[in-house]
């Protein structure tokens, strides 16, 4: 009889080991998929969530954008780009409204949110009037409406995020016990 109890304890330990291993495989698979998307799309962030209403009606808060960033493709007026500005952590999703192309091939451009009254010069770093290709994270190629609302809710309501994590943790523990 004691041998059976030991076997049961061992299988519980093995089950926990396999759950941890399975979780590690899921996380590493997600990271590999993300890195693969980076390589395929040429964008450091191939998927972004629209965080504001500045691009309405084209995109709404919570829309999930799919990006590419192939440097050989010229940037054109009318294109929607995601760009980073020095001193700001969060990339901005706006439309290119003007492009200046020099004979040397250098391109500078100006952006504006569709729902904004003025162009983005007030958002750029001090003294900067134009963006360059190096500022671009990616160009919008497709989107899924409102799929990113989960991200927004998690950022806007940190307690909700911790509650979801606690529920998931409790689920894993309870599943292990049964």
Automatic annotation (TrEMBL):
Domain Peptidase S24/S26A/S26B/S26C: 37-125
Signal peptide: none
InterPro entries: LexA/Signal_pep-like_sf (IPR036286), Pept_S26A_signal_pept_1_CS (IPR019758), Pept_S26A_signal_pept_1_Ser-AS (IPR019756), Peptidase_S24_S26A/B/C (IPR015927), Peptidase_S26 (IPR019533), Peptidase_S26B (IPR001733)
Keywords of the record: Endoplasmic reticulum, Hydrolase, Membrane, Protease, Signal-anchor, Transmembrane, Transmembrane helix
One matching Pfam family: Peptidase_S24
rRNA-binding keyword on record: no
Membrane topology classification: Single-pass type II membrane protein
GO biological process, one term: signal peptide processing
EC number: 3.4.21.89
Catalytic activity, as annotated: Cleavage of hydrophobic, N-terminal signal or leader sequences from secreted and periplasmic proteins
GO CC aspect terms: signal peptidase complex
Alphabetized NCBIfam families for the sequence: sigpep_I_arch
Protein name: Signal peptidase complex catalytic subunit SEC11
Organism: Leptobrachium leishanense (Leishan spiny toad)
Gene field: SEC11C
